[in-house]
Amino acid sequence: ECYVQNTAREYAKIYAAEAEPLEGFGEVPEIIPIFLVHRPANNIPYATVEEELVGEFVKYSVRDGKEVNFLRRDSEAGQKCCTFQHWVYEKTNGSLLVTDLQGVGMKLTDVGIATLAKGYKGFKGNCSISFIEQFRALHQCNKYCEMLGLKSLRTTHQKQWKATSMKIKNLPNSSTIKKTVPKKAREPRDFISSEH
């Protein structure tokens, strides 16, 4: 728990260093530190300690990416959390995603990290790889993504889909498709073929 949150905190510090100087960006989300405490005389010898957050606790993103949260989409903190996720995803070439962003205002705690199966630079997260796939499919860029110059995930996905669709339309029949178009191109991840 400490390792995951403090790793995410380090990414948040780099994100802040890039975002804060941008004109009009404003305050940046901060992931608070968490500490492991050893209590040898206690029945439970280890505990975590962190700053108490006072105020309305909001989940800006959830671990599996399925929940649609209006506070996430419409609030400044929510949009900046989504931008932070996009920034980390892009900086790690899609290998790592900070997720389960929640807290009070711009102070976040109890975050999760998803990595590809092999991990990222020796680090393995505590969330399923499916969270990365869901983020890639569901993320909608906002003005903060644009201010940081992040590449739209939708545009990339739509271009791949359009190119694949055109290949399929230009072929004379389905038997030719099976022989000439690789399976991955014929059946994109988010597309369920009518052949099945």
From TrEMBL:
Limits of the Alpha-type protein kinase domain: 1-153
SUPFAM superfamilies in the cross-refs: Protein kinase-like (PK-like)
Any Gene Ontology CC annotation: basolateral plasma membrane
Reactions catalysed according to its record: L-seryl-[protein] + ATP = O-phospho-L-seryl-[protein] + ADP + H(+); L-threonyl-[protein] + ATP = O-phospho-L-threonyl-[protein] + ADP + H(+)
GO molecular function annotations of the record: ATP binding; protein serine/threonine kinase activity
Family affiliation: Belongs to the protein kinase superfamily. Alpha-type protein kinase family. ALPK subfamily.
Designated name of the protein: Alpha-protein kinase 2
Organism whose genome encodes this protein: Stercorarius parasiticus
Lineage: Eukaryota, Metazoa, Chordata, Craniata, Vertebrata
